[in-house]
Design brief:
Structural class: mainly alpha
CATH topology: Four Helix Bundle (Hemerythrin (Met), subunit A)
Shape: globular
CATH class: Mainly Alpha
Order of helices and strands: HHHHHHHH
Number of domains: 1
Helix content: 55-70%
CATH superfamily: dinb family like domain
Number of strands: 0
Number of helices: 8
Oligomer: single chain
Strand content: under 5%
Radius of gyration: 18 Å
Length: 175
Amino acid sequence: MDDALRVVIEMMESIGHGFRKDLEDVTPEEAVWRPLPQANSISLIVRHLSIEAEWHRASLESGEPMPYGTTGDLQRRIDLVPVDLERNLKAFEAAYSSFVAALRKMTLSDLQQRTEAAYQGWPSRSAHFLGFHQARHVSMHWGQIRTIRNLYQKSRGQPARFFPDNPTFSKEEAG
């Protein structure tokens, strides 16, 4: 492993582990629950992440470009992915693990070359964006999933799953 990439790899591994751990006991009802009709469910978020994790993997392993615009062909391929939490979680884990494994074999220079190939035509991005774009993306959606899981619990009169007694939240406004 290139020492210059060690922190990025550790971050990716930590995010992947925490993400999987927080989804271990999602019930089928919880997976499709939405706090609002127009909101995303956990199943939809994991579907989205599985699709994009595959794109990131392909970009890192073989230099395939990351989709920038949605063509009719791309939309048809996206539409073929079912909303199936177990299937998509397995697909996500496989693509994410392969991404980390490929990153372990790279040098910083390799990563810069793959980033250039992956993001041709995109607006500005850093020289090593491919190395942390997926981590940032997964982290944002992981936060959404944790929030949905907390809201699901609280909407049923149960304490929040994550940090139920956090002292930084005011008891007065929490209601």
